[in-house]
Amino acid sequence: MKKKLIVLGLLILGVGIFVTVLRSADWQDIVANLSQITFGKFLLFMAFAQISFAIFNLRWKILLKCHGHDIPFWTLWLYRAAGYGVSYITPTQVGGEPVRIYLLHENHGIKLREATASVLLDKLIELSAFIAFVASGIFVVSFTNLIPKNSLHLFSALIVVFVGLSIYVFKKLLDGEGFLTTLFNGLRLNKVKKLQRFEKKIHRTENLITKFLNHSQHKRSTLPIIIGLSLLGWAFTIGEYYMLARFVGVGLGGYESFLIATIPSVAYLLPMPAGLGMLESAQVGLFSLLGYSAGSALAVMVMVRVKELFFSGVGFAYALTHGLTLLGKESTKKQFVKGPTGLKPRKITRIGIKKILQQTKASV
């Protein structure tokens, strides 16, 4: 109950910030900018947006194949969308990962430990590439007068923390020690009797990631490809902002598109569902500093949110039709399916996110 109240409170805060940003904007300017996006341009943007999502999905497919599991690309695309949908409404960047783990385990018989390792490594690389892009954006803008020094110092401090943490995590994994295991023992949680059984489970899962990172063939070939795909995916994300800005009549250059795509994305790291409100206010501020109207910034953000809602909607639809109740408890109902001799009753069990988390923790 306490967690639900926290999520609800953060959501209300985000909505409040979002509404405040909208009230301060010129609605006629927003509508005028959006009216420049024809249906053809909209379809072009949505098609282009699939590229970065597909690239990140390919990265996950490669990681799974290295663990001996060759899952069809489009099947993983749906799993990723389902995870994305859950992450979108939770105040963290990793809220939907248990869903991806569960779908791998339930539909393909992959051990929870292996499924967890593939998803954790995929997410770790994704967050590291994300932080690297945001950090590079802040580094570039530090040589300009676009952002006030106080705000720049705050952004820089946050990025230093996240970059340092990423480096530390990879170092621990490459050394074979494991970050979560080290943290678990460092907090003396291994001394708590009820938690002692988790130490070995955490270590076994991290050991799979460590073996992958330290495998000579993976180091020479697979890992560079995976890192390259991560950077390429973010390059296409920058291209999305460039395209959208052009569609609404804003002639962003490559440098400006890079800043627009990277710096405001810090909002996604904040404990706010989808960075709601924070992302919009950051974009409005940066657009204004670059000399463009708040209306053009919000027009661009409307299209970004449409894209995000598309992936989330597809993900939710898939999850809800494949045995998951995202906001409810586990339930079982009878459904009739067509068989060789006619319709036959079959029990369909729908499992909630809370139950997925419990199963993942218990079986890793």
Description of the molecule:
- The structure is a single chain.
- The protein has helices spanning 2-23, 27-34, 39-66, 73-89, 97-108, 112-141, 149-174, 179-186, 196-214, 216-247, 254-262, 278-289, 294-320, 353-363, and strands spanning 324-325, 331-339, 342-352.
- A hairpin with a 2-residue loop joins β2 and β3 (342-352).
- The protein is globular.
- 34% of the residues are buried.
- It is mainly alpha-helical and 364 residues long.
- It has 14 helices and 3 strands.
- α3 runs antiparallel to α10 (216-247) and α10 crosses α11 (254-262).
- Mean pLDDT is 75; it is low at 331-339 and 345-349.
- Helix content is 72%, strand content 6%.
- The protein has one domain.
Brief digest:
By secondary structure, the chain is mainly α. It has helices spanning 2-23, 27-34, 39-66, 73-89, 97-108, 112-141, 149-174, 179-186, 196-214, 216-247, 254-262, 278-289, 294-320, 353-363, and strands at residues 324-325, 331-339, 342-352.
